[in-house]
Design goal:
Structural class: alpha+beta
Number of strands: 31
Largest sheet: 7 strands, antiparallel
Number of helices: 8
Distance between the termini: 81 Å
Length: about 550
């Protein structure tokens, strides 16, 4: 080996040792790539970038370009909406009592207002993004481009990194939607990369009709240098949809569009150009003329994020929703205890609860005969069940609603419930439901859940009035607190039998360890934080005079 060859070999070994190059780099591509960083690898990837090392060793796959799927049938698109596991809770203000009766609250979009609000949602970085409601969607992720410049055996790695956030806004007035996007926390590892150009384009694809996706020419794609993005870190694009002719198969003139962000970084000195695509999201457009809220509100066109099943949320524990209490209690009882409702039927199952089967809206004027069947059957059953009662000031409430395909006649069996409630509560609930259909664009055939935010009993415990024989603390068997409804924020403890002045603690049975006290000094009506376990027990009861007592535990909003 010549002297020059020995010097080069020695230099190569030195470069390997100090990390300027790595064995894999001599075999890999010399132009780098673009990545969406998984949340659990952002910190490590950022550290490697600042050290001038490639992030490929972290096992992060370069981003794949989105593929267009082409046109699909309306049935297939609707089915995809229905199969989505994503849900959202509708937050509607209470109805208002006026001289002409109950009127709905004003419509409110309740948009995602800031990038921070988006990023606070754990779903914002997921493969579906965060759908807050029909009209607000967002997705936020860290993007990284690494540029690997190899000269022979010597490779240098530089990178650009930023937090990309897109927020989509639908409409309850037009077939338009807009996407606002920002770049935050921009990092470059070499000043020359401030001159690299980043182009962001929101790509859209028509799914049902050729006119489903029209880009607004006044809001085109945006290309700026990284330095310019640092100074102006946001931009906006808008889309519109042409309404197709109404047909028997598509009377609401639906249109569907997929859209996704396409980010292209170009650095001319290194002849580098890479594109990464974000996740796809779907927008459904419609021109349903029956979106009406009493007395004179019409919402004749709309654009919604349809891949999330709505939850009709009824927060009856809040004082301002007192008028819905009777109706809400009936709906909740029907879903929780169907076999105890009227008409009685063994094996009765009433749909609608979150996590269970959905309800399906029926536009009553389009299906007048079916709607009349529901109303007539409900009337007959109510007359039979409550004919001997004084019904002054009362009306017969039914669940599921007559305006759904799960109503009393159209469900195909007796899987429904009727109950006499005050006419005031029944009318307020009917007005509120009708307004929600319009405000959230619940079209004919749309599926939804019903959730009534009311105290839910999750445990019943019988306790001795003193510690059990041979025990220092324990006065009851183990009990479980689990299956907490998602709207619950705390637990409430009620003494329903025995000495009402009893006071007690709750401990956790720990095998092969010392039992831990979880709650201290609970009394009738006490509220506590939510803790879950299969191994709780009541301990150290006081003020019982030795009498046993029964405790019920409720999850409350």
């Amino acid at each position: 080996m010549s002297r020059l060859q020995k010097q080069l070999s020695t230099l190569f070994i030195v470069f390997l040792a100090i990390g300027i190059i790595a064995p894999t780099q001599t075999q890999a591509s010399t132009d780098g790539g673009g990545y969406w960083l998984p949340e659990d690898k952002v910190e490590k990837a950022t550290k490697l970038m600042k050290e001038g090392k490639p992030i490929g060793d972290l096992g992060i796959r370069p981003d794949q370009i989105q593929q267009e799927d082409g046109f699909q049938t309306l049935d297939k698109l609707k089915k995809a909406d229905q199969q989505s596991e994503t849900t959202y809770r509708a937050n509607l203000s209470p109805p208002i009592k006026t001289a002409v009766g109950w009127t709905p609250p004003e419509f409110d979009y309740d948009h995602i207002q800031t990038v921070e609000e988006c990023r606070q949602s754990p779903d914002s970085g997921s493969q579906t993004g965060y759908i807050k409601n029909r009209y607000s969607f967002c997705w936020s992720h860290v993007a990284t481009y690494e540029i690997i410049d190899c000269r022979g055996w010597i490779c240098n790695t530089e990178a650009v990194q930023f937090q990309f956030t897109e927020i989509g806004y639908g409409s309850n007035q037009s077939r338009k939607m807009r996407v606002y996007y920002t770049l935050d926390d921009i990092l470059v590892t070499d000043p020359s990369l401030n001159g690299a150009k980043l182009k962001i384009d929101m790509v859209c694809e028509s799914k049902l009709n050729p006119g489903d996706c029209k880009e607004d020419p006044d809001y085109p794609e945006t290309e700026r240098t990284i330095a310019q993005w640092k100074n102006t870190n946001f931009s906006l694009e808008m889309f519109t949809s042409e309404a197709p002719p109404a047909t028997d198969a598509n009377p609401d003139r639906l249109g569907y569009m997929d859209f996704w962000p396409e980010l292209t970084l170009t650095h001319a000195p290194n002849k580098f150009k890479k594109t990464i695509d974000g996740i796809k999201q779907t927008v459904r457009y419609d021109s349903a003329r029956y979106m009406f809220a009493f007395p004179d509100q019409y919402f004749r066109q709309g654009a919604v994020f349809s891949k999330a099943t709505p939850i009709f949320n009824v927060p009856i524990t809040e004082p301002e929703f007192e008028m819905l209490d009777e109706a809400g209690q009936h709906w909740k009882y029907a879903m929780d205890h169907p076999e105890q409702t009227k008409p009685q039927m063994i094996g009765k199952q009433i749909p609608g609860a979150v996590g269970e089967s959905t309800l399906t809206r029926m536009y009553t004027k389009r299906h007048q005969e079916d709607y009349n069947r529901n109303r007539n059957k409900t009337r007959r059953v109510c007359d039979r069940e409550f004919g001997d009662e004084d019904r002054t000031g009362k009306q017969c409430d039914e669940y599921p609603f007559a305006s759904t395909w799960q109503g009393s006649a159209t469900n195909g069996a007796d899987n429904f419930s009727v109950k006499m409630i005050s006419a005031d509560s029944n009318q307020a609930a009917g007005t509120w439901l009708g307004a929600w259909y319009a405000y959230d664009r619940i079209l004919d055939g749309d599926e939804f859940h019903v959730e009534v935010e009311a105290p839910e009993k999750i445990a019943t415990i019988r306790s001795e009035g003193q510690p059990q024989d041979g025990q220092d603390n324990r006065s009851s068997d183990n009990f479980t607190i689990d299956n907490i409804p998602p709207y619950a924020t705390k637990l409430q403890w009620k003494i329903v039998d025995g000495p009402k002045d009893a006071k007690f603690d709750v401990m956790k049975d720990i095998s092969f360890g010392i039992d831990e006290t979880i709650f201290y000094d609970l009394t009738d009506g006490s509220e506590s934080e939510i803790e879950t376990s299969e191994d709780f027990y009541i301990a150290r009861p006081e003020n019982t005079d030795g009498e046993s007592f029964t405790v019920e535990v409720y999850a409350i909003p």
